[in-house]
Amino acid sequence: MKKFLLSPGLALACLILLSGCSTLAVKTPPGMSFISTGDYVPGVRTLGIAQAKKTAVMPLLFSDRNKIKQELYEQLLENAKEAGGTGLSNVSFYWMLSGWSLASWYVLTLVVDYYAEGFVIVTAAP
Fold it and tell me: Whole-number mean pLDDT of the chain?
C-alpha cells in the first residue's frame, strides 16, 4: 500500500488558496433600501459621495480581504445613514500601498490602504 505524502510546496499552495476563502456578509440595515455597485439609477436624488478608508497590516503578505471589504461596507453604510441617504450606488473598492510599506517590507510585512466610495442616494421622492 502506497502512502500519500503532501509535499511542502503543495501544502503551501493549498494553505494560500484556502486562506483567501471567507464570505462577505453585509446586510442592508433598517432605513437603507438600496446598495449597488452599478451606475446611477434614474429617479433618485444624489446627496454626495461617501468614502471609507482602512489600513491593513499584512504579516507575511497574508490578509483577509473580504473581512476588510465588509468593514468598509459597514463604514460606507454608516456614512450614508448619517448623511440622510437611503441607499448607495456605484460602490467601488481600490487599494494603494501605504507610505509605511517600504519600511515594513524588510520584515516581510506589507501595509496597504484600502478605500471604498459610493454615491449616497435617496430612493424616495423628495
Answer: 75
